[in-house]
Specification:
Order of helices and strands: EEHHHH
Radius of gyration: 18 Å
Number of strands: 2
Helix content: 40-55%
């Protein structure tokens, strides 16, 4: 274990450091700060067009990317927010049906 694990989020929209304590690992810090990043992005949907989240911990990436039956609550919440962000983007790109039927070509 580390003396004090922590991670940070740095962007043009927000800056946050997350010291998570001396009894947690860097993995825990990466998962926590990933949750912080995606929830901050969700609250600022109109402020950006694209977002990339870099995660240093390979095991945190695998945990978030893969389906686990026994995942933690915070990982479940990260996945839920990511799905909402993806759905928001898909809805934003949706073309209204009346535009398609009025004869406009795209």
């Amino acid at each position: 274990m580390n003396d004090a694990a922590g991670a940070g989020v740095h962007s043009r929209l927000f800056l946050q450091n997350a010291p998570v304590g001396k009894y947690l690992t860097n993995y825990d810090a990466e998962v926590y700060v990933t949750f912080s990043a995606v929830t901050n992005l969700q609250s600022r949907l109109g402020s950006f067009e694209k977002a990339i989240v870099f995660i240093h911990s390979r095991s945190a990436i695998k945990t978030i990317a893969l389906q686990h039956l026994s995942e933690s609550l915070i990982v479940s919440k990260i996945k839920q927010v990511i799905r909402k962000l993806i759905n928001y983007e898909l809805q934003k790109r949706r073309i209204p049906m009346d535009t398609i039927t009025s004869g406009h070509k795209w």
